[in-house]
Amino acid sequence: MHPSVILRILGALLVLFSLASLPPVFVAWLYHEPEIALFSYTFVVTLFTGLGAWLPFAHTEHELRPRDGFLITVLFWLVLSLFGSIPLLLMETPNLDFTDAFFESMSGLTTTGATVITGLEELPKSILFYRQQLQWLGGMGIIVLAVAILPMLGIGGMQLYRTEAPGPIKDRKLTPRIAETAKTLWYLYLGITTICAGCYWLAGMNLFDAICHSFSTVAIGGFSTYDASIGWFNSPLIEGIAIFFMVISGMNFALHYFAIQSRDPFYYFRDPEVQGYLAILAGVGFISVVALDMTGTYTDWEALRYGVFEVVSIATTTGYSISDFSLWPIFLPMLLFLTSFSGACAGSTGGGMKVIRILLIFKQASRELKRLIHPNAIFTVKLGRRAVPDRVGEAVWGFVSAYIFLFIIMELALLATGLDLTTAFSTVASCLNNLGPALGEASANYQSLPATAKWVLSFAMLLGRLEIFTLVVLFSPMFWRH
Amino acid sequence: MHPSVILRILGALLVLFSLASLPPVFVAWLYHEPEIALFSYTFVVTLFTGLGAWLPFAHTEHELRPRDGFLITVLFWLVLSLFGSIPLLLMETPNLDFTDAFFESMSGLTTTGATVITGLEELPKSILFYRQQLQWLGGMGIIVLAVAILPMLGIGGMQLYRTEAPGPIKDRKLTPRIAETAKTLWYLYLGITTICAGCYWLAGMNLFDAICHSFSTVAIGGFSTYDASIGWFNSPLIEGIAIFFMVISGMNFALHYFAIQSRDPFYYFRDPEVQGYLAILAGVGFISVVALDMTGTYTDWEALRYGVFEVVSIATTTGYSISDFSLWPIFLPMLLFLTSFSGACAGSTGGGMKVIRILLIFKQASRELKRLIHPNAIFTVKLGRRAVPDRVGEAVWGFVSAYIFLFIIMELALLATGLDLTTAFSTVASCLNNLGPALGEASANYQSLPATAKWVLSFAMLLGRLEIFTLVVLFSPMFWRH
Ligand SMILES: [K+]
Ligand SMILES: [K+]
């Protein structure tokens, strides 16, 4: 691919992204904050860098091959994280260095929600709004990536979804159809966010908090405007609304589209992935509530309230918190962290390996069991009524092994920086699964971790968000040949 | 399968196993120990139970199906662990309860080498000898299992070895050929053990220690006659001999057979699994020695000595120790424990998932990468010059996912008993990989763990030793149907 094409695309992207500085300018103006200057500056820098890269090549025409999708997707997230970190780097309190600003920006755009900032209550509203907006924009990007781009690239078995995406995306060129799909998804995403904000507002949040939290709920991001997260409100009603929208946002957005089109609410329950997703939430939820009650960590109603909320928050990889689960009997946080590895559904804003892959792994492992008992019989792996091609199964297994292998390597890297096992395990799991909260030294926030660890974790967030292979493929010599 | 056939086979097995009490009787006589009575009693009980089960059905003839191999193999290890625990249960000091005696016996026969006993120096020689002998017999059983039985059952991709086993085992009936193969392997195993004992003796061990340690070296067991393990001798020469025989015993015994037949020492290096095995040992060894030196844990020569020994000991899953590696910077013990997951070669006495499977997983994951770049090209996974059938790949992936899934479930179970993360992770990894040593509360031995944890860990040892599926298949309703 010609570097000129890359510059043109990234330039156009930056021009678009510069607009993201305008709402914070408006918020700063509304609350009479001096950050008007900060965000205006960011707007100008991003806009002109974008124009500088775009204009010289605005009329270059080059056909894009599917393969080019890998490079563009990775650069997309890297460049946005870089420019997204400008206001965080330049703001006065807290005074973040480049490592921290980049970490926070990457954490926002990948909807991870891990933070290096404490004292959120003291931050200017415009900065708070900006952080929430980063997650919301990241979430939008992920849905387009997952529904429109990954199926075409065939990453980790996602070719399964190739024919199911809204609109007929059957050709393998990265051309206009993506724009159509993206528009449909955009309306859907905006719609759900608006309803979510409305519910929060009716439940007692002020409008600012309602909008901010709707951003990070629907994006499965987990950033909050308070150090105590959504627990600050101490309102079971608000928690219930959060639970509802976390579960909804953890489903495939293409499925929402079809469900709305079919006007049949039972459409969801016929989807094998949704069945698996709800089964995991219910199963882990049940175990957690019973364990919290039996160990006397909470009494009955509290066990139900805190147990269900944290399970939904972590299993969907949102990362909101209403209690300090790092103080629960260690069995439970570990169970929750392990559940975040399966994560939400493919095509959602959630992280983890995705329920569909866990489902396929289980079906394939159980086929191996059957084959041992009847070595000469033929068994097919089915998803609903459709047989899953062997090649999809192989891609899923390749994905899962790469995921676990990279998890181990990064955990060892964090241990080598001197962190203890609990911290290393939980932070790498949290960032790779785009979850957010962690245990040990990072149980409050990631501030105190060594800079090396923060860079490894930023890499983990990107790896997780880009479904591993999009990024790993760039390290393969074969990719660059010819 | 008729219960009468099972009783006949297990009866015959117990009659054979009763003979294992005679060498300890001899040792007790030699050292004038009162344990003559203990082992004579064990001999009589085991012999007569065996005869009682065998004789009534001695003339029953039933064709065995390959499937029956699963049940027989599992019962084989369970029944031997049970009868093997008799002397440990009845001995006076230390006074073990049933949980501990069974754990120790299972640990011996599965060549895990995890122990609940301290003060080994004070134990009667006959008891010490008996423990070592349990490992040696277990090692023999494992080789027969791995070389002759698993390939026929096709567990976890081991059908790869079906045509490579010594002697033509091409029919799928559990009949005389196994006996032939077993005899060949028995001579080989005895030969290597004898040479190993001779080397230890020449290097300065007394004859008793030399024989005892040769048993646990060649079986990759790790039991010692001293609490300080082989470090008690504080002899670099002995350590070098141990390293050599651990590496040798971690290779496929069928490969030893072919190498000896071909009279070509380079035969080994042409085997892709041996190449991978040596590369892992060299790579992890290099990292460890450098890390030990750079962190100032040891000075140069000591870093080399302790680093190489512990890496070989843990990567092969032997579990001997010459230093307290639980005190090393946590990065290193974790690296070693993770390496024990790949473990030794298939068809050896070692544990873990086996190098061949890790190799296949890597090759398949790298094929997925290539497929992403060239979606329409066809790539074959090769091992040496042979293409690996897709079905073998699927079986390997099924194996690895079941392994990791069960590891997680058992780790959660141990956390639920109240153990901390380091202890739970390391003990489950150690027992599932048939390794032995662990960290945290089990860094000296397993005595202080709760009884529930010991039973879970006994189950883990059996699971690991029987390559997961042999045991798991028995829990499937399909197995029992018809
Ligand atoms: K999150
Ligand atoms: K061992």
Keywords:
homodimer, two-stranded antiparallel sheet, mainly alpha, 63% helix, 2 domains, 482 residues, 1% strand, binds potassium ion, globular
Question: Could you characterize what this model shows?
Answer:
Chains A, B: It is found in: Cell inner membrane. Chains A, B: Keywords: Cell inner membrane, Cell membrane, Ion transport, Membrane, Potassium, Potassium transport, Transmembrane, Transmembrane helix, Transport. Chains A, B: It is a multi-pass membrane protein. Chains A, B: The chain crosses the membrane at residues 38-57, 69-90, 136-163, 184-203, 240-259, 274-292, 334-362, 395-416, 455-480. The structure is a homodimer of 482-residue chains. Chain A has two domains: 3-249, no CATH class; 385-480, no CATH class. Chain A has 20 helices and two strands. Chain A has helices at residues 3-18, 22-30, 35-54, 68-84, 86-90, 98-109, 125-153, 177-202, 207-218, 236-249, 253-262, 272-294, 300-315, 331-342, 355-373, 390-416, 421-432, 451-465, 469-472, 477-480, and strands at 382-383, 386-387. In chain A, strands 1-2 form a two-stranded antiparallel sheet. In chain A, a hairpin with a 2-residue loop joins β1 and β2 (386-387). The first copy, chain A, is globular and about 70 Å long. The N and C termini of chain A lie close together (10 Å). At the A-B interface, α14, α15, α16 and α17 of A face α14, α15, α16 and α17 of B. The complex binds potassium ion (K) (2 copies).
Blueprint of the fold:
The structure is a homodimer of 482-residue chains.
Chain A: H1 3-18, H2 22-30, H3 35-54, H4 68-84, H5 86-90, H6 98-109, H7 125-153, H8 177-202, H9 207-218, H10 236-249, H11 253-262, H12 272-294, H13 300-315, H14 331-342, H15 355-373, E1 382-383, E2 386-387, H16 390-416, H17 421-432, H18 451-465, H19 469-472, H20 477-480
Antiparallel strand pairs in A: 1-2
Helix pairs in contact in A: 1-3, 1-4, 2-3, 2-7, 4-6, 4-7, 6-7, 6-18, 7-8, 7-9, 8-9, 8-10, 8-11, 10-13, 12-13, 12-14, 13-14, 15-16, 16-17, 16-18, 17-18
The structure holds potassium ion (K) (2 copies).
